[in-house]
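Chain and conformation:
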Amino acid sequence: MSPELDHYARLLRYDAWANAETLESLRGGEPPAKAIRWMGHIVGSGALWLARLRQEPPELAVWPDLDADQRAAGLARLADSWPRYLGALSPADLEASVGYRNSLGEEWTSEIGDILMHVVMHGAYHRAQIAAALRESGREPAYTDFIHAVRRRLVE
């Protein structure tokens, strides 16, 4: 794989690891409903962006109502699908544009590289919301900082 594609592959491996850590932090007891909803959104939005990139109809709603097993299965599918998607790209494909309709029905066009970056940053945003909700409820959130994952060689 090229250095450009390797960069995105690494970021998406981090995203998959951080999502798995966050999912684990929701197990046991009764996590806040908003944390569960945000975790479902991470699954739904990841699947939606992958479908948009593949120019396929989405399999999930952007805010799906998923139980714990469905959230875990959805994250596992994404962790498996992103490397396969990247494996079919060339470095030049990162600058190719993809047209799609957003959840408001608006037509947009974005570069593939920008979409991949958005997926990673969007996940981090919602994982932070989940962490804050868990902390507010007296629970310890997962430690999902990128630099932590790199220092500990949790993401190569």
